[in-house]
Automatic annotation (TrEMBL), chains A, B:
The active site is at E505. Belongs to the transketolase family. Homodimer. One of its GO terms (biological process) is DNA recombination. This is transketolase. Its cofactor is Co(2+); Mg(2+); thiamine diphosphate. Residues 448-620 form the Transketolase-like pyrimidine-binding domain. It comes from Coffea arabica (Arabian coffee). The lineage of its organism: Eukaryota, Viridiplantae, Streptophyta, Embryophyta, Tracheophyta. The record marks H120, H356 as: Important for catalytic activity.
């Protein structure tokens, strides 16, 4: 029987995403030897046996396989369980096979940590049941194509437990994690770094480690699925349909970012999101009693989650399976499964924070191995049948992918228009010619704030980029970051492309990372005031580290925002953001530069960007700015020097560029050779060839003045030893924009004064 | 009857902090004309009348006063309430007086916003009842001494509603807010900036505006009270005994930082903390339905709070009074009062987000005034009797302070030893000679990580500084930031000086700010990994802005932390922190510099500091470092140049200084004149006189190399145009410390190589 027809048979789903006539048949799993539908008991083993073996797996005939397990279980089973109890009891047999799988996961964790002499075994050992069950029975993935679009997404928010995931990826047949990789845990250049990194290891969806971040990542992945499903699925065919799983620990549960994200997930009723809370009652400093007394389940209920508690301390996988089944049946709420576990399970340190990280002593290792009858195995031993066990799930994934591909073909025939758009998204979402949609402005257009120009760019892009989606942390109107006619993403309208984050900047960053890394071609933007980049700094950093191409739209970008005062006036934020590796920070000076910034930001699909924009209307339009020049980071805006070198160069960004231009014009009238340079993106300028940089900022010109209403930090690089930096070295002050600008010297008069004093040196 | 004897009469308290025989009599309030105990009904009016008049108040004889109110109420009372209903009904009369007080608060808000053409009237108008009631009936304060130690603390976490507080401060008689100040709302240099700033306006306890921050500030204030009360109160005399109030809005309720802080407040059972939630169902972008569906009260219950809901939309103050009474009676939990209000109350924009900020049009203003019979008053009108009303509360505060002072005298006699310590705290907590407790190290001492040196400094300081208190975000052991033998701050031991924050960096920052600004002489420290400064960036900024002298102990300060990889390896954090105005960022190179950093950090009681410390053991001790030199920010560590200029200067910080020293020694052996400079705190060095800076970094030496395992941003300032910067321009990598250091060039060999290439130019 071909898999496709198998999958169309009308047996009820066991681990369904959401039971529908259409998808009920890819929900089978195997809870017995081989591949078999849990409910209708139809054996699917034949198909499994036909597939290629997993890496490291030993091939067995069916009879050999069963026989080998019998031998293994007789050897390893606790003496109180006689073999008669399970030899002819399929359920019990399956239970013991799974138990042995969990043992194997634990032993690989133990061996890896002790071999590397580093790592965090505590959570990994405690959650072995969960990891094993997810990869063996629950999740849909294809190790031969880890990027298969419709795979389930898994996020390990408690990233320090990555060894659990590495071991599961290895057993499941992901090429990315071989035994040799486990041996190189945390070592330089390994594929098994100390925290999971999506850019290094196939099978890792997002980079985690900073606690709490994985929760919004998972919410973003689930949001992306809900959005794409709403847009593209049809009554007769669902081409977007996967679940999202996230494991979080006590630390994640304490971090505010997880509270924010959890509140939004419930607001959006993302019912295909399952959050698994490793409730092991320990953090680094000791028992959670030290600082954590809340009723976490009740809190999640108050937020609007379905909550389930499962005690896995005795290894009863059935309890966890039931919890997942219950989650799958939920249609209105995301599900929070609180799993009680024992940190450092098996070790003499178990149940204490001492097991959180570090190795085990020889005696402990010996006892741990004895407890699971492992003492005669070499380190990194894998029971050969375990590879085959995991292969069953992997094979299913491969078949699911094949089925999904068939569906996609059908979809292309039945819905060619939608299919074209979907296809564009699968290829990154950049429709040819999208750049030409960006508006252009001329010197005679009315002057606006750069946030005003941004609004026009964003809305033009929304028309041509099907994947553009995003929102603001309750400042859509102030940030001018609302996509008109695109609707709000809400439960009743998952098609909506405006995301209402509420006042939750940090979750917004983490969710945007999830959307960007979903792989569905979505192009997320996230908007707030520049000052509140402070609230989401770590998420922005993770965008850059994990190659999540989020566009951060940050308005009210200087003391020029005026009356709201120093709590809202960014000063040091640009410097702090510029220091983040890989991140592109733009501070455009007008409409054309704003369009140019968007062009670079959108075009680079593995680099995040910050576009800093003014609240206040610019003082004037500037002739000579350029959209195309933005990609070089810095360029000459105006110059009256002809073949000669300028006497002085005024370098600026954003809303201060027009001050420089005005001042330059004044000096030029006095006969001075003055150049004005826009340094709209430092990093891009730094990457230009030396000749270009020399052309723009000739080393022969030592009289340079930088003008930017922010921290002076870093400007010396561009003005040189003899240049001057006009910046803001204090916190700003409440006051009208022009008063605040005057107080800190950002007037044409003061710029001219400093320039003249440089010229007279 | 003297106030002191009045206060000793055995009538039960009405608005007690916590009823005890000792304090039951300062709990009186006035809910009728004049001052009267709500419960025993004894009039206290005589005492009140004898006090000096409030600023702007008109003096009345008692009969005039009552008469004037009768006239006012007859004029302003809604026609449906006949004067017979209240003329002889004290309760009703008081209710109407209070109602008129609330009207007056609203009208001042309206006038101020319209006069300034800026500000946020929405929340201020909606919460007028709460503001009025707190300042008129509930809070204990003395406008003539706003810093009175035992005052109740009030935090406006929804800082944009500051106009409500400004108006209340004005009516209550605080010199800091005159009518002229209200007229200058948000204007440059005014005492009424766009968000409340404690360094500008007496009566403002903490600087708020960034949403959510006020909640941990309030938790910190309540923690400080609980700690000091536990240490100093005696069975017969309580010298530390005040409540803490905090108003938060929907935005604060969404921000993760408030979730973190609320979880801790309940864990610590800070029952004297009252959090008032302005549930007006609106944020900037619209109805909270857009992004906020949770059951906030249930969430707070799950965290461990007592919760009360009050509907104030009809102005029934009695409901709020009852809620406060209930909060005062709670001995085990902090109290969360959810107050339903109408944003922009009175305006035609009321109940909508349009009322959040901005002015009102002429027609609206007219109607608003008509609604409260205010149409015949000039702008900024204050009913004269309102000043006198508020004066009653202010007079009480003055008397309470006098009583507290008497108590303190008694305490000094009865408990001289504790009194001496308490007195030291009241004067800032710096006991003479405290600096000498700091350890010193010699070149022959075993080499440690700088976090190890920090541990010793911190523990020595704990012995001599009675106010040193702080903790870590679940990394006490890794940060080595635990005060041995000082106990944990927990409900059963408020005396403990180690605060267990759990994994809640952002709340830790905000709570530390509250502790620092409590005024009880506490010297807070807050510890985490340097990378997680990202999670608390805005709180650190607010420390600097609000002069909260928190010492941030940030370990694992570079890629040198090793195996945990790039998610945990700070790269750009030092640059970002150095850009924050006022903040002192230290990166000490050994034990002596660590001691020096603590010395400066502790000595400066209005400036926060970050001390960045290594996880890894230093490569070697360095001869020539100095504790005393740290206060100059940078100094010469070693030099073989005699009277000549060096050929090259190696500039470094922290764990890389010993690399430079080793490299310098090698170059010196080859006959080179090499200077090594430690630039332990850029800001302090920048503040030195030009000659000193020239002595350390002579402009004649252009060959300079900076070596710091972090972002190069900013180093150009010190190495000059021709110098080289060895920094980290990418994210780090998982790997053993020495492997990671080698990968990025932080080896003696590479430093020497670069130095030589500079020398050969």
């Amino acid at each position: 029987m071909a898999i496709s027809s198998l999958l169309l048979r009308p047996c009820p789903p066991i681990l369904p995403t959401k039971p529908t006539a259409e998808n009920s048949h890819r929900c089978y799993t195997s809870n017995r030897l081989g591949l078999r539908c849990l409910t209708c008991k139809n054996s699917l083993r034949k198909e499994t046996a036909e597939t290629s073996p997993p890496i490291g797996a030993t091939l067995f005939s069916d009879s050999e396989y069963k026989h080998s397990w019998l031998e293994e279980l007789k050897r390893a089973c606790p003496p109180e369980i006689s073999s008669q109890q399970w030899e002819n009891d399929d359920e019990k047999f399956r239970e013991l096979v799974d138990k042995r799988g969990v043992d194997n996961v634990r032993m690989l964790i133990l061996d890896s940590v002790n071999h590397a002499k580093a790592g965090h075994p505590g959570m990994a050992l405690g959650m072995a049941e969960v990891g094993y069950f997810l990869y063996r029975h629950a999740m849909r993935y294809n190790p031969r194509n880890p990027k298969w679009f419709n795979r389930d997404r898994f996020v390990l928010s408690a990233g320090h437990g990555c060894l659990l995931q590495y071991v599961c990826l290895h057993l499941a047949g992901f090429q990315s994690v071989q035994i040799e990789d486990l041996k190189r845990l945390t070592k330089l250049g390994s594929r098994t770094p100390g925290h999971p990194e999506n850019t290094i290891t196939d099978g890792i969806e997002v980079t985690t480690g900073p606690l709490g971040q994985g929760v919004p990542n998972a919410v973003g992945l689930a949001l992306a699925e809900a959005h794409l499903a709403a847009r593209f699925n049809k009554p007769d065919v669902a081409i977007v349909d996967h679940r999202t799983y996230c494991i979080m620990g006590d630390g994640c549960a304490m971090e505010g970012i997880s509270h924010e994200a959890a509140s939004l997930a419930a607001h959006w009723k993302l019912n295909k999101l399952t959050l698994i809370y490793d409730d092991n009652h320990n953090t680094i400093d000791g028992s959670t009693d030290l600082a954590f007394s809340e009723d976490t389940s009740a809190r999640f209920q108050a937020l609007g989650w379905k909550t389930i508690t499962v005690d896995l301390r005795n290894g009863e996988l059935k309890l966890f399976e039931n919890a997942l089944l219950s989650a799958y049946g939920e249609t209105e709420k995301p599900t929070f499964i609180r799993v009680k576990t024992t940190i450092g399970k098996l070790s003499k340190k178990e149940g204490t924070s001492k097991a959180h990280h570090g190795t085990f002593d020889e005696d402990d290792v010996k006892q741990m191995k004895q407890k699971v009858k492992w003492e005669n195995h070499q380190p990194f031993h894998v029971i050969p049948m375990i590879y085959r066990e995991m292969q069953i799930q992997a094979d299913q994934g491969e078949k699911l992918e094949a089925m999904w591909t068939s569906k996609l073909h059908y979809y292309q025939t039945a819905y060619p228009e939608e299919a074209a758009e979907f296809n564009a998204l699968l290829h990154g979402g950049l429709v040819p010619g999208w750049e030409s949609s960006l508006p252009q402005w001329s010197i005679t257009d009315p002057v606006d704030a750069t946030r005003g120009y941004s609004e026009k760019c964003l809305n033009q892009l929304a028309k041509v980029l099907p994947g553009l989606i995003g929102g603001s942390a309750d400042l859509a109107s102030s940030n001018k970051a609302y996509l008109h006619d695109c609707g709000d993403f809400q439960r009743q309208n998952y098609k909506g492309r405006n995301i209402r984050y509420g006042v939750r900047e940090h979750a917004m960053g983490g969710i945007s990372n999830g959307i960007a890394l979903h792989g569905g071609g979505l192009i997320p933007f996230a908007a707030t005031f520049l000052i509140f980049s402070d609230y989401m700094k770590n998420s922005i950093r993770l965008s850059a580290l994990s190659h999540a191409a989020v566009t951060y739209i940050m308005t009210h970008d200087s003391i020029g925002l005026g009356e709201d005062g120093p709590t809202h006036q960014p000063v040091e934020q640009l410097a702090g953001l510029r220091a983040i590796p890989r991140l592109l920070v733009f501070r455009p000076a007008d409409g054309n530069e704003t369009a140019g910034a968007y062009k670079v930001a959108v075009a680079n699909r593995d680099v995040p960007s910050v576009i800093a924009l003014s609240r206040q209307k610019l003082a004037a339009n500037v002739e000579g700015t350029s959209s195309d020049a933005v990609e070089r980071g810095g360029y000459i805006v105006s110059d009256n020097c002809g073949e000669e070198l300028p006497e002085i160069i005024l370098i600026s960004t954003g809303s201060e560029l027009c001050l420089c231009e005005a001042s330059a014009n004044l000096l030029r009238k006095e006969g001075r050779r003055v150049r004005v340079v826009s340094l709209v993106c430092w990093r891009l300028f730094d990457r230009q060839p030396q000749e270009y940089k020399e052309d723009v900022l000739p080393s022969g010109v030592s009289k340079r003045l930088s003008v930017e209403a922010g921290s002076p930090l870093g400007w010396r690089e561009y003005v040189g030893e003899k240049g001057s930096v006009l910046g803001v070295e204090e916190f700003g002050a409440s006051g009208a924009y022009l008063d605040a600008f005057k107080k800190y010297g950002f007037t044409e008069e003061n710029v001219t004064r400093i320039a003249k004093s440089l010229l007279s040196c």
